[in-house]
Amino acid sequence: MSLLSSQVAEYIGKSSWIRKMFEEGAKLKAEHGTDKVCDFSLGNPDLPPPMAVKTALCEIAETIDQPFSVGYMHNAGYPAVRAKLAAEVAREQQCPVNAQDVIITCGAAGGINAFFRAVLEPGDEVLAPSPFFVEYGFYTQNFGGVFVTAPAKDLTFDLDLDALARAITPKTRVVLVNSPNNPTGAVYPRADLEALASLLAEKSAEHGRPIFLLADEPYRFLVYEGVDVPPVLPLYPYSVVVSSFSKNLSLAGERIGYLAVNPAMPEKEVLLGGLTLTNRILGFVNAPALAQQVLEKALGYGVDASIYASRRAAMAEVLRETGYTFQMPKGAFYFFPQAPGGDDVAFCRVLAENLVLAVPGSGFGRPGYFRLAFCVGEEVIRRSREGFAKARAAFA
């Protein structure tokens, strides 16, 4: 007799490759020593939060004895935090955004789940380019949706508009894009996003209901060589932005993020009311009070992105010198090289034997590649050269 639902049992059976490799890394570190293993499996930022976070925590500690200082608040978040966040989103998205257009959530994951709960009927489809963040499919299925993918272009991983157009059906309810992208580091240019917006407007009219464009943007802050991350909200009325402060403030464990609804969306109040409700009934109730208070004081600050730029250069040097084929990431902190021999799972096993941990591209819906998270010290990256060279030689 099973204690689990068949769906969850199936999920465990094909659980995240990221976590599998992370757990493999723990075993290897116990056996060989932490300083011998080069772990690029998990996108867990190692940089400390900016000093503004520490200052905020000290200031908050002085007020913790006041009534309701960490009590319940409006489900959408503290009004002052929403107002300050709306101003920041308006700057990034290059359009007016007001406090009432923003819902503060338990990270981007909480935001996506609240959004899907609000808009999906059983059988509705969520369409995303592949490769994609591994948990999108699980979030979709949480609410009876069907996760559908359309391949991005080879190697560059730019949007393939023709593939997306072919994948849209009358059941398509959401198109989910992630730029800068995890796992590829691709940043979608404005022309591609404009073309996608036109496609969604056409298909929405054809199918008689709006298709939402949901932009997942936790890496917006992290781009290289002057690359621009185009705003999504001005391009399409039924657009929504979801993001978090896991990466730019190095607060991955604090679970603080937001949903921003296009202020020009017809009947946006209906969606905002639904999101406020789903944020509560999914059990989040509201985003953590302390994290919201930190955000109010630390918004606008960030980690030193130049450190990631140096690590990117070091990772590219190692891969280039050891004979790998890859595209330089335009943003985020991931490389997504081709797997020598074509079998990404087999190749990652050989890498692990050489004390280098990577995640097979199959886990992101794109076999034949593997992901490297370079949010680790530069000394780890340079130390990995020998392991990469040996693994590459095994598939020569």
From TrEMBL:
It is an enzyme of class 2 (transferase). This is Aminotransferase. Residues 36-381 form the Aminotransferase class I/classII large domain. InterPro entries: Aminotransferase_I/II_large, NHTrfase_class1_PyrdxlP-BS, PyrdxlP-dep_Trfase, PyrdxlP-dep_Trfase_major, PyrdxlP-dep_Trfase_small. Pfam families: Aminotran_1_2. One of its GO terms (molecular function) is pyridoxal phosphate binding. Its cofactor is pyridoxal 5'-phosphate. SUPFAM superfamilies: PLP-dependent transferases (SSF53383). Keywords: Aminotransferase, Transferase.
